[in-house]
Design brief:
By secondary structure, this protein is α/β, with parallel strands linked by helices. It contains 11 helices and 15 strands. The radius of gyration is 23 Å and the shape is elongated. The structure holds iron/sulfur cluster.
Length: 353
């Protein structure tokens, strides 16, 4: 796939756009005024591989909390601001690395000019975060939704450019996946700024991961997108996990192990579903990009297991263990999990020696 060329910008230490890896971001779900809870969740996000974190700034107290939150965090912080431009000014003063403004609910040109001036002084990028659900009802009401979203973003881009501000990132999120895809495809050809991809309010993890994978995945496969946020009604690390799975599926990023497991069928003579679940849980805390295969029988088992760093191909109550394509032993079903994990640990140890 050929990636769309966008104008790179820096969110703190992370480059977004250009040839930089597609950055994974998420959002805290704590009360931002509760500094301890928010910092704790940011640390959890750092541990699960999140590269940029956004925090909601609903009021002045939340904006003031950002200074402490920023000091404690190791990843860049983006302030999410709606309605009140003074909160954006407060967030900038607190030292955030980026702003997200919703053009649908912040439209006063003078107020925007004040925020832009303060962001420019600090060289802090602003995301124009268009959301289908918060477009003003009187904004081009007869135009199709995807186009309205694009036009709203382009209008705001022109305003910012007229203020000589170019540290811009854009998102066009809708719940409806085809609308989201169409909006991003349309704007991708009309400007050079980096694109933040997401399908908004995607839902609970199972359905939300699928909606996000389709919306974000289609766009990424077309070379569109520079940073990704998966929105799920769940702990934010679930969002990060799904984002990496999408990126890994397209060969765009590698983080953590990839589990190859067969669906099991009437040929399996070992409990593959229970084993794959257990292995997946044990692999969750590993960040090394390993490929681990859990296969039920000899049909595809040895082939997949051989391609993996560590693999098992089940047989009758026992299984062949593979390491880097070579059979290194046969163990009984009760030893599957322990043996696979011992092989994984030894590979990681070797890799870090
Ligand atoms: S690898 Fe074997 S057990 Fe697994 S789905 Fe294929 S045929 Fe069935």
């Amino acid at each position: 796939m050929i990636r769309r060329t966008s104008k790179p910008l820096r969110i703190g230490k992370v480059t977004v756009g250009g040839h930089a890896p597609i950055a994974v971001q998420s959002m805290t779900k704590t009360d931002t005024r509760d500094v301890h809870a928010t910092v704790t969740q940011i640390k959890e996000l750092e541990d699960c591989g999140c590269e940029i974190v956004r925090v909601a700034v609903p009021d002045r107290e939340a904006a003031e909390s950002l200074a402490t939150i920023k000091k404690e965090a190791s990843i860049p912080i983006i302030a999410d601001v709606h309605f009140d431009y003074r909160l954006a000014l407060g967030a900038l003063k607190a030292g955030v690395d980026g702003l997200r403004l919703n053009p649908g609910n912040m439209g006063d040109k003078e107020q925007i000019a004040r925020v832009v001036a303060a962001a420019k002084e600090r060289q802090v990028p602003i995301r124009i975060g268009v959301n289908a659900g918060s477009l003003p009802a009187d904004f081009q009401p007869r135009t199709p939704l995807a186009e309205r979203m694009v036009n709203m973003a382009l209008e705001r881009i022109r305003l910012m450019e007229s203020l000589d501000f170019h540290l811009i990132k854009v998102s066009l999120k809708a719940f409806d996946v085809p609308t989201t895809i169409q909006a991003y495809q349309t704007i991708a050809d009309r400007m050079l700024y980096p694109l933040h991809l997401g399908v908004t309010e995607a839902g609970l993890p199972r359905a939300g991961a699928i909606r996000s994978a389709i919306g974000i995945g289609v766009l990424l496969h077309q070379g569109i997108g520079d940073t990704v946020r998966v929105s799920l009604t769940a702990h934010p690390c679930e969002e990060v996990f799904v984002a990496y799975e999408i990126l890994k599926s397209l060969g765009l990023r590698q983080r953590g192990p990839t589990l190859v497991s067969c669906p099991s069928c009437g040929r399996a003579e070992v409990d593959i579903i229970a084993l794959a679940e257990a292995v997946s849980q044990r692999l969750a805390s590993i960040s090394e990009p390993l490929r681990v295969a859990v296969m039920g029988c000899v049909v595809n088992g040895p082939g997949e297991a051989k391609d993996a760093d560590v693999g098992i191909a089940g047989g009758k109550g026992k299984g062949a263990i593979f390491r880097k394509g070579k059979v290194v032993g046969t163990v009984g079903e009760d030893k599957f999990l322990a043996t696979i994990m011992a092989e994984v640990d030894s590979l990681i140890k070797k890799g870090t020696e």
